[in-house]
Amino acid sequence: MKWLIGLAVALAALAGAAWYFVLDGAAPTRADGVFELAAYRALVSDDAQATLPTEVQVEVIGENEAPSFAAEAGAFDGVRAFAFPAFDVVGPSGDVVIDAAVDEATLQGMSGGKGHFDREAYARLLAVMQRANDILITHEHLDHVMAVARHPAPALIAPHLRLTAPQLAALPTYAVDGALAPEIAAVAAADFATPTRIAPGIVAHAAPGHSPGSIVIFVRTTSREYLFVGDIAWQMSSIEHLRGRPRLVGMLVPGVDPNRDAVLRQIRALHDLAVEEPDVAIVPAHDAAHLESLVSGGALRAGFEPSS
Ligand SMILES: [Zn+2]
Ligand SMILES: [Zn+2]
What we know:
Blueprint: H1 2-23, H2 37-44, E1 55-67, H3 68-71, E2 79-90, E3 96-98, H4 104-111, E4 116-117, H5 119-131, E5 134-136, H6 146-149, H7 154-157, H8 165-174, H9 182-185, E6 196-199, E7 202-206, E8 215-220, E9 225-230, H10 236-241, H11 247-252, H12 260-276, E10 280-284, H13 288-296, E11 301-302
Parallel strand pairs: 1-11, 3-5, 9-10
Antiparallel strand pairs: 1-2, 1-4, 2-3, 6-7, 7-8, 8-9
The chain binds zinc ion (2 copies).
């Protein structure tokens, strides 16, 4: 009998641990005032139509696969395709690059050599960054920074980096041999604690949680609005189903979701935003299928143009 009770206790503990580390990921029922869409719109409301970006191009630098439950607690539908993209917001006021992706060594390190890396796409990203007016990253994790930290022409891109203090502080970790180019090391920090207009139609706003330096980027083009949300959610299903990453991911991958409660509030806010403002294209960084649907729907154009 004693062993039966012991077994029951052990099974209950196991079930509790499975729930806590793998299954629990529910967003709260309310999260007001997390993303200030009205403020973002107000900041660009005076931008003349002729100055606004005309389109957003996406370059998928790499691809990989990961189990569904890693992106969305409790989802066991198999394997999901993860994209590693960068974006170029194109228009008469110049290029604004969003995110600096992985390089080949980083992707293969992350994926155990199983990732697909597009060298030509990465070369196009490096080239576009050299002519961009502004370069933003959604956050300071390794799969969003390499074309900044390891750019072959740091002096050309440094004057255009709009990075916050936590983003800049992380860069030396990713520099080759830990030595960041002096031009990039000297970049002054931007502060997006309050929503900040970057260029015509473009606003950045701090959204810490997934990392200390996470931000969201609002873009209004001549035809659409976008919200680039980085890794708040890895996949759209997380926002649709109101479920964040399991605690296990934050334990296994250092630096992921140090403030998980903030991430879950943001997921609730994005869910509500998607319902109330269905025309705003929400763009998580790694959802390959969602990026493809944005391309086929005309919200994104596939591939960077060599010049604009
Ligand atoms: Zn991340
Ligand atoms: Zn990422």
